[in-house]
Structures are given as structure tokens and as C-alpha cells.
Design a protein that fits this description.
The chain is mainly alpha-helical. It has one domain: Ta0600-like (de novo design (two linked rop proteins)). The protein is 70% helix and 0% strand. The chain is globular.
Length: 91
């Protein structure tokens, strides 16, 4: 497994933390969709996988119902995704 794929697996685990009873259902559904349909979907190009996941996380971050303690985690994951996206585009 490549270094990028390892990081993607780690990101998926972090995003999985949104599957929490404190998190509204629409956010849990969006985060699960981000992981299943985009981040871990190897049928899609890597830059699309990373970009769409970052975009969905941006929507989640801007959702007024997101519990405040999940905001920093969301931003950290977005930062890592954008860094990976730049690495993939540069290679």
C-alpha cells in the first residue's frame, strides 16, 4: 500500500469519528458518503477523491448544527487532504 493510501486510510478513520450520537444525522450521512463514495473509492482518480472529500468536509464545517468540538477536527482533516492533493498533483 502506498504512503498516500495509508494516509487516506488514516483520514477515513478520523472522519469515522463523526459517526457519534452527538452529531446530527445529516452530518453523519455526509461524512459517511465522503468516505465511502469518494475517499475510499479506488475507481475514481486520486485528485477527485481527495478534492470531493475536502469539499464535503467544508460543507460539514459550515453546517451550523456541527457540534463545536468537531470543528477543529474537520479543519485538520481538510488541511491534510489539501496537502495530499498538492502532493498528488505535483507528482
Amino acid at each position: 500500500m502506498s504512503d498516500v493510501e495509508t494516509k487516506i486510510e488514516q483520514i477515513a478513520q478520523v472522519i469515522g469519528q463523526f459517526d457519534d450520537a452527538q452529531v446530527p444525522r445529516n452530518i453523519r450521512i455526509s461524512s459517511k458518503e465522503a468516505v465511502d463514495q469518494w475517499l475510499l473509492n479506488k475507481d475514481k482518480d486520486m485528485d477527485l477523491r481527495l478534492g470531493m472529500t475536502a469539499s464535503i468536509l467544508d460543507d460539514i464545517f459550515n453546517d451550523s448544527n456541527l457540534p463545536i468540538h468537531f470543528g477543529p477536527m474537520c479543519l485538520q482533516v481538510q488541511t491534510v487532504l489539501e496537502t495530499l492533493l498538492n502532493e498528488v498533483r505535483d507528482s
